[in-house]
Amino acid sequence: MAILAPSILSADFLNLGDNIRKLENAGIEMLHIDIMDGHFVPNLTFGPALVEYVRRFTRLKLDVHLMMTNPQDYIDEFCDVGADYITVHQEACMHLDRVISLIKKRGAKAGVALNPATPPSTLQYVLDDVDIVLVMSVNPGFGGQKFIERMLFKVAELDRLRGDKYGYQIEVDGGINNKNVKSLVESGADIIVAGTAVFRGDIIENCKKIGAIIK
Questions:
Q1: Binding positions for substrate (predicted)?
Q2: What is the value of pTM for the model shown?
């Protein structure tokens, strides 16, 4: 059974508290927070202050996705403000094993994200240690992009690699909606990140519709 982790990148920030309450009422367990530095990806978003605000407001699990260069320099800050999961990009980490160890030493769950062109084989020697592998199903940087269909094969490959040997969860982020989410879950996805599909329109109803498909 997969879970839905709404991405607050698409939320109404003038009414963020109300949006989060609606997500809680819809039975959501996890929030996805995209941190972009304007360098690793062509967009600039939030910092630790937002994560701290959200943590004070809710006890939902906070899944913090660092789309940034030198993420190791900010692990402590994001752990200090309440991140439960911290995901870094394979492409941004020269010493990936060291970064994963730092995240876990601080008591958070460690995730590694793969851009669309990055194969799962690049994670061969860290799969024992990661809690999440995040498949980017769009080129990261902006919400509302079209889902890249080929990423279904990457999800399936990660599911095959996992087998009974590894315990990581497969997360997918980018362009997900009611039409493609079933295929992702059937391919092996455990955590579905959706922004526009959740926050455009009736939040509670949107969560229920996606939830009915993935459970």
A1: 7, 65, 141-144, 173-175, 195-196
A2: 0.96
111 annotated as ligand-binding: no
Handedness of CA 51, 55, 58, 62 (dihedral sign): positive
Read off the CATH number of the domain in which 45 is found.
Answer: 3.20.20.70
- Is 196 annotated in some ligand binding site? yes
Q: DSSP class of residue 146? A: P
Element (H, E) at 205: helix 203-214
Cα(62)–Cα(5) distance, integer angstroms: 9
- Residue 175 CA from chain centroid, whole number: 13
How many structural domains does the chain have? 1
Q: Tell whether 159 is in a known binding site.
A: no
Summarised one tens digit per residue, pLDDT across range 57-113 is: 999 999 999 999 999 999 999 999 999 999 999 999 999 999 999 999 999 999 999
Instruction: Answer for the pair 156, 183: CB distance below 8 angstroms, yes or no.
Output: no
pLDDT tens-digit map of 20-56: 999 999 999 999 999 999 899 988 888 999 999 999 9
Contact between 177 and 158 under an 8 Å Cβ cutoff? The reply is no
Query: Is 89 marked as a binding-site residue?
Result: no
The residues annotated as belonging to the active site are 34, 173
